[in-house]
Automatic annotation (TrEMBL), chains A, B:
Keyword DNA-binding: yes
Entries under InterPro entries matching the protein: Homeodomain-like_sf, HTH-type_TetR-like_transc_reg, HTH_TetR, MftR_C
Domain (HTH tetR-type) ranges: 4-64
Keywords per UniProt: DNA-binding
Name of this chain's protein: TetR family transcriptional regulator
Pfam families (alphabetical): TetR_C_14 (PF17754), TetR_N (PF00440)
Native source organism of the sequence: Microtetraspora fusca
Length: 228, 228
DNA sequence: GAATGCTGTGAGACTCAGTATCGTACGCTT
DNA sequence: AAGCGTACGATACTGAGTCTCACAGCATTC
């Protein structure tokens, strides 16, 4: 959904002013004036001065939640690893804005707090999802917390690296690498019980050590494709 | 480090008023009046209205940092597991205040954000410590981030449980149990070499029958990551 | 016993974020 | 053209946080 032109002008004005003279030195009046609207209008579009820097965060969270709900992944950890990709994708999507925001957030404690708080919402979402999934198994809340925090941490680590490098490469490979770490780490925690239904389909495949991930993927894709 | 009587009266007045009529409904003037001092004096002791709820947080962080510096633990993960005990100990020390604050924080978003932000500082401290420790080893930043976030997550999970239960038991046993989990989990991470040369790489995956080929592919891709 | 300097406090003015209310201009339907 | 809803601007208000200044208490020093 394309944001309204007014809201777009407001964020542009805000980011511009924040970079020119700093966050604290910029008043909401300044932003509204540059955007050519009144102060009232600013607060109609954004509930606070901070929010102008983090628009569509709620929407993103909702998207992640939807993906999680629709997930048919085999394990909880894979489901949330999959979902966290959406978050990274969102940052990559308009890298320009992400980078400017990153530099800003690094300098302004209030914004940093805001960002941390929003990250905590993802973590909470993941925690609840995994908690439901594992319900009944031993130490479910603890394992849920650990898995959620690890996936979020992996994402953040990759994102930070990418932002620090000025968004100069494709961050999904490092993300996969990091999530791979997490999944392997938690596999022994997750599979304490066997598959939940007796009717699972099982894939067993053996490859030479020299096979690259792509080789593996191709072979499995070919196999799955034949069974549709 | 006994806090000054004025500062003590201020926090008492604040917590009392917050509980009686709510956080937003209490002004700094109200707090100052009940404590028998002026508004100016309030802001001399606390930089903000939020801070009155989280006194000595900086001191605690410093204590944790000192413990970390003095640590002689054999591995980074054990060192930060050890350090995080100080944090729990601080909450347990005056359980009364911790519990009242917990109930308050649960109801007031502004305070929740504040708390989350302060937790993030521990995590950052741990991350940097582990990062230094692991410097030079493969994926050091990633593993540092994961270890730090896991230890913090374990602590938070135990703390939340203890607070929800009204502080009715000794939380150090569950903490040890949780940290044991973390340590055991990350031992796996240390031994993460791939299959040995000459042996096949084997993929075994189980999926619900409802899983589409794409689901299977996604899951396997996630497991394989970008490992070459 | 004054003069001096330091420290903690109160008073008041000021800026700005955020909320609430009201009037009004514009576009749309019938 | 009349009616109607929506978006906007204007204005006033509350309260957090900052800053400056004045003053009282209390020591030291000559």
């Amino acid at each position: 959904m394309p944001r309204s032109p007014t809201s777009q002008r407001l964020t542009d004005a805000a980011i511009g002013l924040f970079n020119e003279r700093g966050y604290d030195e910029t008043t909401v009046d300044d932003i509204a004036a540059r955007a050519g609207v009144s102060r009232s209008t600013f607060f109609r579009y954004y509930r606070s001065k901070e929010e102008v820097i983090f628009p569509d965060h709620d929407a993103l969270l909702a998207k992640v939640e939807a993906r999680l709900r629709a997930s048919t992944a085999g394990t909880a950890i894979v489901a949330i690893c999959d979902a966290v990709r959406i978050v990274l994708a969102h940052y990559v999507e308009d890298a320009e804005v992400s980078l400017r925001r990153y530099r800003l957030v690094g300098r302004v404690p209030a914004l940093r707090h805001r960002e941390i708080a929003s990250v905590a919402r993802y973590q909470r979402l993941f925690r609840e999802y995994v908690g439901d999934w594992l319900a009944g198994t031993p130490d479910a809340p603890l394992r849920a917390e650990l898995m959620a925090s690890s996936v979020v941490a992996a994402h953040n680590q990759v994102l930070r690296g990418w932002l620090r490098a000025g968004g100069s490469y494709d961050p999904f490979e490092p993300l996969d690498h990091a999530l791979q770490y997490v999944i392997r780490t938690f596999r022994h925690l997750e599979n304490m019980e066997g598959p939940r239904e007796g009717e699972d389909q099982v894939v067993v495949a053996a490859f030479p050590r020299s096979a690259s991930p792509d080789d593996v993927m191709d072979a499995i894709r070919a196999h799955l494709g034949s069974r549709q």
